[in-house]
Automatic annotation (TrEMBL), chains A, B:
<dbReference type="GO" id="GO:0003677">
    <property type="term" value="F:DNA binding"/>
</dbReference>
<keyword id="KW-0238">DNA-binding</keyword>
<dbReference type="Pfam" id="PF00027">
    <property type="entry name" value="cNMP_binding"/>
</dbReference>
<dbReference type="InterPro" id="IPR018335">
    <property type="entry name" value="Tscrpt_reg_HTH_Crp-type_CS"/>
</dbReference>
<dbReference type="InterPro" id="IPR036390">
    <property type="entry name" value="WH_DNA-bd_sf"/>
</dbReference>
<dbReference type="GO" id="GO:0005829">
    <property type="term" value="C:cytosol"/>
</dbReference>
<dbReference type="InterPro" id="IPR012318">
    <property type="entry name" value="HTH_CRP"/>
</dbReference>
<dbReference type="InterPro" id="IPR036388">
    <property type="entry name" value="WH-like_DNA-bd_sf"/>
</dbReference>
<dbReference type="InterPro" id="IPR050397">
    <property type="entry name" value="Env_Response_Regulators"/>
</dbReference>
<dbReference type="InterPro" id="IPR000595">
    <property type="entry name" value="cNMP-bd_dom"/>
</dbReference>
<protein>
    <submittedName>
        <fullName>CRP/FNR family transcriptional regulator, anaerobic regulatory protein</fullName>
    </submittedName>
</protein>
<dbReference type="InterPro" id="IPR014710">
    <property type="entry name" value="RmlC-like_jellyroll"/>
</dbReference>
<keyword id="KW-0804">Transcription</keyword>
<dbReference type="InterPro" id="IPR018490">
    <property type="entry name" value="cNMP-bd_dom_sf"/>
</dbReference>
<keyword id="KW-0805">Transcription regulation</keyword>
<dbReference type="Pfam" id="PF13545">
    <property type="entry name" value="HTH_Crp_2"/>
</dbReference>
<feature type="domain" description="Cyclic nucleotide-binding">
    <location>
        <begin position="21"/>
        <end position="138"/>
    </location>
</feature>
Length: 246, 246
DNA sequence: CGACTCGTTGATGTTTATCAATGATTGTGG
DNA sequence: CCACAATCATTGATAAACATCAACGAGTCG
């Protein structure tokens, strides 16, 4: 049921070919990557690695969503990364995972054995260059997230999360309808709480409040409609104008 | 009084030579960097760039401390980076600053004009490799910080900050005395508040509480003594054992 | 059907923010 | 040199935001 091993697939038809760590690779480089890659799938909710585990691979997310999180001894948990398709998992040169990694939705990874990948990175600047670019983007995202965690109200936090998810959907060319934007929430209330540094009750209450105020509409518990994105943007507390909407 | 332009200095005698973005460069590469570098100094409190400003240079912090922070329209501010000696400022390929950068203490930067630096990065893999390593370290630090912001109590936040600063001092081989560890606080109460997502009053109260409970001792307002680091570590709420004390 | 997960909502409690006063220190101009 | 302003820090009183504890509804799986 779990850990289905996918068949080999061609890089040429890969949905993340042009955004993942291999984005800049030439044909010959792709062939080399091809030789050390293998696919691996997980069902929603399954753990991928635990903090402290040895990790012998790095990977790209092909489909689905994974979370990185840190847990304190008493159970308090903070999500510190949300990996979407094309995002990279693992750190070359490090063999022990510093975070818990969990499949939030059904997930497929394109894995590379770590040692060969590291050796290839030395020979292939395109990989390191792309990884640097992706890591800098992640750092920017982490810093935006720090503002959310440190300074925003519960309502602003929820609005910010909705805006981030809506923008992502839009950047993939999806979700726009005649009545505004829409997307599927990939996270449970508890996962949203761990993302935002709130309790799940507060998440639930604030979602209800935004719904009551007409900022969002729910279809079922997971499908979100944004009738007016500018209105949502105002609720996030962020600059509406000038700022670099990262 | 401000913006003193330092004289040219030799890379060979540079205090951050082996930790900064140039750490892996060979002699000839250093000479090339030398040709595009210039020093620049700022006094404590001075702005270096504002969010939205054009930024035509990247730089290494040589001495002193700088902060990156994000401000909301109503004045709420979150620090999102603290740059210490050897840390890198700026992003190759980006010409507009996304954060306010402020000199927290007196500060000297080793600046490189951005365009020549970017061209050199293409020719010189050592620079990109080192920058990737440093960026990954910063991302780890940002994620530890996210746990602090999202899930720790005010007391744990203060204890965590003290522990981070004490560890840094120790990693430079400084601060250890017969009565434990000591260091100078580089931040005002307000800057600590912006770092930790608190108000300055709460920072002040929690410092007083830790002092009252004997976890720390103050000499003046800025010099901190840690009589028992393990005790402080417990106050941070982090794993005392196992965890990778990053 | 009963157990389980996920989500919602209410009542209450705790933590931290806000507002306000004051002390200590430093720099400035008369 | 002193009076004054300005900055940084501390502490108290009160208010607001969010967490905690608790009950319950809806959907799903065995």
């Amino acid at each position: 049921m779990s850990d289905v091993i996918f068949d080999h697939k061609e890089c040429g038809s890969c949905p993340i070919r042009h955004r993942a760590v291999c984005a800049r690779c030439e044909t010959d480089e792709l062939e080399e990557l091809d030789a050390i890659k293998y696919y691996r799938s997980y069902e929603a909710g399954q753990p991928i690695v635990w903090s402290g585990d040895r990790m012998d691979f790095v990977a790209s997310v092909v489909t689905g969503v994974a979370s990185l999180s840190q847990a304190m001894e008493d159970g308090r948990t903070q999500m510190v990364g949300l990996l979407l398709p094309s995002d990279f998992l693992g750190r070359p040169g490090r063999d022990v995972a510093p975070y818990d990694v969990i499949a939030v939705s059904n997930l497929t990874l394109c894995c590379f054995r770590r040692k060969p990948f590291e050796q290839m990175m030395i020979r292939t600047p395109h990989i390191g260059q792309r990884l640097l670019e992706m890591t800098l983007d992640e750092l920017d995202a982490a810093r935006e997230w720090m503002l959310i965690l440190g300074r925003k109200t519960a309502r602003e936090k929820i609005a910010s999360l909705m805006a981030i998810l809506a923008r992502r959907e839009a950047s993939l060319g999806l979700g726009s309808t005649e009545n505004g934007m829409s997307f599927e929430l990939p996270l449970t209330r508890e996962a949203m709480a761990d993302y935002l540094g709130l309790t799940l009750e507060t998440v639930s209450r604030q979602i209800s409040a935004l719904k009551r105020d007409g900022v969002i509409t729910l279809e079922g518990k997971r499908k979100v409609l944004i009738p007016d994105f500018d209105r949502l943007q105002i609720e996030t507390g962020d600059d509406t104008d000038g700022g670099l909407m990262v």
